Amino acid sequence: MRKCVIAFFITALVFGGISMQTAYAMDCTKDTPVDQAGDWFATLGKKGMEKDQILAKRKADRLAICAKKQADEAAKAAKKAGNDLKKKFGM
Length: 91
Hints:
The chain is mainly alpha-helical. About 80% of the residues lie in helices and about 0% in strands. It has 4 helices and no strands. The chain has helices at about 1-15, 20-25, 35-40, 50-90. It is elongated. The relative contact order is 0.08.
């Protein structure tokens, strides 16, 4: 049974058409199907408080990674805009 579930998720990911760039281009606070599947595997067999702690930690980690990625992209865009202005004004 477990092998069937794993095979189903792998098949769904391969043929689902969800690329990692598309999955992480969304809002940081929303869980993607990939995140939900990972959370399900991580909490498989866990109950109560332990399950809630694992889910909270995984969500916090995803938010931190997404926020860092967005900050890096914003810094890169600001640097590019600054360089474009310098070229425009001939500096």
